[in-house]
Amino acid sequence: MRTTAKYFLNFILILLLISCAGGSKSEKKDKAVTIEEHFQLAYSAAERGNLDEAVREYKKVLELDSKNEKARLNLGIVYGKQGKWKKEISEYEKAIRIDPQFAEAHFNLGVAYQERGDLKEAMAQYQKALQIYPNYVEAHNNLGILYFRKGMLDQALAEYQKTIDIKPAYAKGYYNIGSVYWEKKKTDDAIASFQKALEIHP
Fold first, then answer.
1. 91, burial (CB in 10 Å: exposed 0-12, middle 13-18, buried 19+)
2. Which of 67, 70, 99, 190 would give a disulfide with 181, using CB separation of 3.0 to 4.6 Å?
3. Minimum mean pLDDT among 12-16, 39-43, 63-67, 178-182: which range?
4. Per-residue pLDDT tens over the stretch 103-140
5. Is the model's pLDDT at 4 over the cut of 80?
6. Between the CA atoms of 97, 99, 100 and 101, what dihedral angle is there, to the nearest 10 degrees?
7. What single string gives the DSSP state of each residue in 39-104?
8. Cα separation of 36 and 52, whole Å?
9. Distance of alpha carbon 69 from alpha carbon 134, whole angstroms
10. CB count in 10 Å sphere of residue 151
11. Quick count: other Cβ atoms within 10 Å of Cβ 82?
């Protein structure tokens, strides 16, 4: 009887262990689903222009996963739309601390600094984004804009040229090339570039 009771107890213990293990996996799955749900709710709210709701939902994602760099990035973008630039920059910096190779976070941080008038830091962030992802069209374009504003026309032209090399249908690239040629008094080249931009995006 004792042997039978002992086997019965061992059997119950094994069932309990299996049940606990299964529960742990289920909890992890539920948590993952919840994170994704909150992320999608936040994204949809931002798309609708409901920025306060988007902030709340992204914060819920971060309560569940503080190292979710995409939520940090998107929360920063929402803060930017709200005009809360200090919070915006803080979220981008947090995203970069989580993943230093996050090119999009470097790019958006560059945009934030550019909008604040800190062109030196903006340029540094665009360059970091391009070190990580050399084919980042918008980073080349924005870097070109900064060179153009500094009067560094050859450098600006080189960056704009890279945008259309990477993406031949990039209308902004042709328009900006036209602007450089116009400044260089190369009127025919400027007009040709402007016309190309209009062909792509009338």
1. buried
2. 190
3. 12-16
4. 999 999 999 999 999 999 999 999 999 999 999 999 99
5. no
6. -160
7. HHHHHHHHHHT-HHHHHHHHHHHHHH-TT-HHHHHHHHHHHHHTT-HHHHHHHHHHHHHH-TT-HH
8. 19
9. 21
10. 9
11. 14
Specify the DSSP class assigned to residue 136. -
* Backbone phi and psi for residue 106, each to the nearest 5 degrees, phi listed first: -60, -45
In the block, tokens 């190292």 appear at 67
Structure tokens at 34: 């919840």
CA atoms of 64 and 41, how far apart (whole Å): 15
Pick the closest to residue 147 from 168, 129, 126, 132 (CA basis). Answer: 126
User: CA 161 from chain center: how many Å?
Assistant: 24
Q: Is the pLDDT of residue 197 over 50?
A: yes
Backbone angles phi, psi at 155, to 5 degrees: -65, -40
pLDDT of residue 29 exceeding 60, the answer is: no
Q: Is the pLDDT of residue 155 over 50?
A: yes
Containing 33, the helix (H) or strand (E) segment is: helix 2-48
- Residue 132's alpha-carbon distances to 100, 101, 126, 137, in angstroms, are 9, 6, 10, 13
Q: What is the mean pLDDT of the chain?
A: 89
pLDDT digits (tens, 9 = 90+) for 133-153: 999 999 999 999 999 999 999
